[in-house]
Amino acid sequence: MKITVSELIVRFMERLGIDHIFGMPGAHILPVYDSLYHSSIKSVLAKHEQGASFMASGYVRACGKISACITTAGPGATNLITGIANAYVDKQPVLIISGETSTHIFGKGGLQESSGEGGSICQDTLFKSITLYAKLIERTDYMANVLNRAAKILLADSSGPVLLSIPFNIQKELVDEEILDQIKTSKNHQIHYDDITAVKDFVHLIQASGHPVIVAGYGCIASGAQAQVAQLSESLNIPVSTSLKGKGVIDEHSELSLGSLGVTSYGEAYDYIMEQSDLIIFLGAGFNERTSYVWNKDLLKGKKIVQIDNNIEQLEKVFKADVAILGDLRLLLSAALKQLEELAIEKKQLTHILEAYRSEGDKNIRQSLSQFKARFPLVDAFFTELQKQHPEGIMVYDDNIIFAQNFFQVSLQNCYFPNSGVSSLGHAIPAAIGGRFARQDRSPFAILGDGGFQMCCMEIMTAVNYQLPLNIIMFNNSTMGLIRKNQFQQYDKRYIDCDFINPDYALLSQSFGMNHYKITKESELQGLFDKVDINNAINLIEIFIDKDTFPGYSSRR
Known about the structure:
By secondary structure, the protein is an alpha/beta fold. A 6-stranded parallel β-sheet has the order 3-2-4-5-7-6, with helices on both faces. 38% of the residues lie in helices and 18% in strands. It folds into 3 domains: 2-182, Thiamin diphosphate (ThDP)-binding fold, Pyr/PP domains (Rossmann fold, 3-Layer(aba) Sandwich), CATH 3.40.50.970; 196-360, Rossmann fold; 376-544, Rossmann fold (3-Layer(aba) Sandwich). Helix 2 links the parallel strand 2 (20-23) and strand 3 (42-45). Helix 11 (226-236) runs parallel beside helix 13.
């Protein structure tokens, strides 16, 4: 049976398990949109293509499934770039379907042409550095090969974005429906990395260690290894620190939680690792700029190091490990736990050491955190109230990072998604919308500053159009806070292009049809969540902070 290429693409997406696609239609992609009309895939109309790409990213973070976005040629595709770059850095499986002008006008200066011919922009070249595969499909005779390669990348354990750019006339060509049967659109059976020797070496290092510590990253969440990390920690009294993206690998209310490790953290992880540990166990955690305190060599000095990751590019990328193991974290930790149980290794006496350290050794840490909280009492009080009223069932998409990193203790029942990737402002609101499409059982929170809010606020109307609940926490200080802080610390208070005038957010909220809550003092937080319907409404909670009050850390390189 013959079907159009546009129908083939839609059925390909259905077989991949894609159930939502985010984007905006344009003339050069309408055949695919028309094929979506009777599809099980729900198309979501964003207000801007960048918002669509952030929605796709937020969707992946919420459920781990392949996501998709769709756009027309030229400006539609180029508007996706920031969000796709974000997905690329975060290794997210996002399929991009883009239109293109018809092949017979390539090089003639067609409207929005981006084929790379005749002086036009080259769309797939623009995407090649931020995708794992970018293909302009000019013929139908190799469709099966192209779609097979795309599927293989999207289904891989270490994945990333894929771009398929399809000219208008190719979308309408007829192909054999049997092409679909040539395409593998399901994951391979789990590959077992049975490196018994490496696992034994890992176990022996734990056995020989006096004060091991775990640094757990997002890889633990992605592989579903939270239970194994918790068992390893609790069975041997091993404290756990996390990367920023790894917040929530273990319950941060646990006595063995050191909080997140990183340059913007006021927690005790850094001092504990520096002063107490003799073995650092990196589990699915990249030693990036934030986590490593700008690659501070003293953090690892004199310590044994184990690194386990499913991405070979992460292994020993910036440090030499005593044991480096490539494989699935959940399976490898399960194997290690079995060996530890057979060896009957006694628990480390770290509980008492940790208690002593917390009562005596980290006075400076407690003082620094106390001072940080004193600078931002409203923010601290807000997160305290949020944790108290909603200890489970929420998703937090965070552009601001430093407040939640230090004030928000993530439980196993909540999800925390910091703006990592390329760390673009304007991410939180569309990402939270994408997350809600993925998880109907969780209420989304978008946390950001007023500068970031103004970059993406029109996507609130996407939530309005689809009647999605959304909770926006906006810190209002009428400035680009990080820029002003840097200009204060490093540029002798020569402030330029950081301050701005805000609109009246009460009136703006009214025009959007959302609820507005203004917080200027702690008493206004009392009973706040008795009034805010986080499960069924769209809410903007505006929290005022002083633009000349800064976190104490320095961004100096």
